[in-house]
Amino acid sequence: MNGNTIESSTVSPVPRYLAGSRYDETVDLSLDVVAELIHTDIVGVQRDEMISPQARFMVAADTAGPVRLIHVTISGLDTPPDVSSLFYDRGRLTRNTVTTVVALASKYNRVERARPDHARFLVAIDAIGTDGQRYSGYLATMAWTAEDE
Q: For position 83, which CATH number holds?
């Protein structure tokens, strides 16, 4: 093996589809029910203090357009939980929260690698400030690791 190639015997075959750990058990559920399950998961992770306690979430399914969406609106992240917090970073807190939300939603998704537009749904996330304006937006298909199989 040279520095530019990988021997085929050392590479696992790439799966055609990526499927979350709860996809099979929820495949027959409506997207509205999946949105409720994702919201429940988010609140559970927040209770376990893996998401900021001041964050608030609205999760809704949107099947009206050509692409099915799980729309997540996050608010409450633009104000430090403690006014004496000198190291508050809204951007970092928002990115960490979004990463967690995408991972939780991914448990219910299935995506064809070569055609991500063939996903069960896309995740659209908007972070809303105290002024009611969106300060950050994200669109994701899914987060996946080998442990998800």
A: 3.30.300
